[in-house]
Amino acid sequence: MSRYPLSFIGKISAALMLLATCLPNIADAGPKTRVPITSKRSAKCEYNKDKKSWQRAGRRKKREDANRRVSTTSFSKKANQTCKTLVPPGTVNELNKIPPLYTFLKSRPSFFGRDASGTPPTLIEIQESSIENLFWREGVIERIINETATEEDCEEFYQSEIDGGSSGFAGCYLAQESGRAIESLLSSAISVCYLRSIPTLTIGRAVTIDKGEGLLPKGKFSKIFSAPQADERRTVVMQVKGFPDEIPEQEALNSDEIEQYIYVRPHNRKKIKKQGDRGQYGYDLFFCNADRGLEGVEVGTIGREGKIRIESSGSGEDEVYNTDVTGYLMKNEDGTNSILYNTNLPREARISFRMLNDTFSEKAHLLIGKNNIIRSKIYLTDLFDQQLTRRSTYSVLEFSGTGAGDMAFRQGAYKETSDDSEFDDYTVGVEFREDRYLSAPEGEFVELLEEVNLQTDAFYTPDTGTFDDEQFDCTTEADIVLTIDFSHPDMQGIIASCEANTLRNMDFCFENEQLREAEMKYYNVCYSDEEFF
């Protein structure tokens, strides 16, 4: 349930990563799986039923070469530590144990940042900052607008090749494009937040049971989304009314009419056991409008070793979106036994959005490593006045924070190519120094951009995502029927909590009026004496 039209998932408003890894290899002899330790090596983990924990399977082979022995020992140590972080089978057996998706952004102790300085603004704070003084040296944008720009101002408008110069539009795009992708991801993740919270409500107030109260597992409302036994099925439909018209203003509609039907179908034990990795939990979730039209679908699965995958797709009147989020879960080390996203293993998200008339499409691939590094690929197509523009970007950046609210970028590198103009090709290294993001052409992140070729990488092709509106039936008769009144006071805390952990309006480079004015004047001011075209 989000600010988007009557849906937990919502639509991806900005045009538009948790895990890229091999599928678990579970032998019939016992619980085993493979997890990635480095970009090129993985380790086999085996569950020890006596110790009730995972451990690395097998022993390190002896090697004659001392250097190889040291390398193998280092890998073995990392493998042992990583295997131990996996959650035991059966730990996550209910939907309310799935951690909020925004927490996958949690960072670890920093491994980089030795050359950066100061405290960078959070993504939310960037929106409220003077963008023209955050990515440019003092006065650069103002002088271009006033047509008093120096040659140095002109040379660093898009990005400076001199250390300590303005990071310019390239630096701004580094923050914006990753922010937009994360915004879209978090928008599609609100559903789990609400579904975790609804079973905590008191029956008869914000939520009523209209049918099937006797079918509640063990007679407990808190267990409504637990996995049915054997091959039993349990379909729950939530009839939503009074949902706030605007978030975060939370002005309730106060309507008694049903505005949306949300179906939840937890996977039964038989289906979970048949999962390729013999899972712990799974669910199907689909959203139907007041006219019983299918708007969106979400399918979540959790493997025996805690690998989680959440796939979402949906459509509006003229658009379609898809998200695919994967990662691993782990127990909180604070002793509370709560479940967190495993920051020892990579987390990945693939996001796509396109207009059905093919006038616009955007897709993103985010990969978050355990060293607080986000690698982000983004590809956009835009058809305007019969002219198609293609834009490809790749960025590598270091982040900090515990979630969407305090996420900040400290340093990174960005490159972009576009067929719109020869001046739309950027490559820049960026570091936050004292009070702004400045150019760092020799920064340690710049060479990492060579990992991806914008011209040949298969990712940089148009989005072809679709939405299958026949996979779920909005007229399905449910076993348990709930009515949820979002205008009730009991819901206000849940709404505030779930909606607070999103990002909005991450187009801060595109929407800044001063930047637009400076860009309109740039060529006349900086190239007035040259034959530019």
Write up what this structure looks like.
The protein has 533 residues and is α+β, with helices and mostly antiparallel strands. The chain has eleven helices and 19 strands. It has a 16-stranded mixed beta sheet that branches.
Give me the secondary-structure topology.
Elements: E1 32-36, E2 42-48, E3 53-56, H1 66-84, H2 123-127, H3 131-134, H4 140-145, H5 151-155, H6 168-187, H7 190-197, E4 207-211, E5 236-241, E6 260-266, H8 269-274, E7 281-289, E8 294-302, E9 307-315, E10 319-331, E11 339-341, E12 347-355, E13 360-368, E14 373-384, E15 387-400, E16 408-418, E17 426-433, E18 436-439, E19 480-485, H9 489-500, H10 508-511, H11 513-526
Parallel strand pairs: 5-19
Antiparallel strand pairs: 1-2, 2-3, 4-19, 5-6, 6-7, 7-8, 8-9, 9-10, 10-11, 10-12, 12-13, 13-14, 14-15, 15-16, 16-17, 17-18
Helix pairs in contact: 7-9
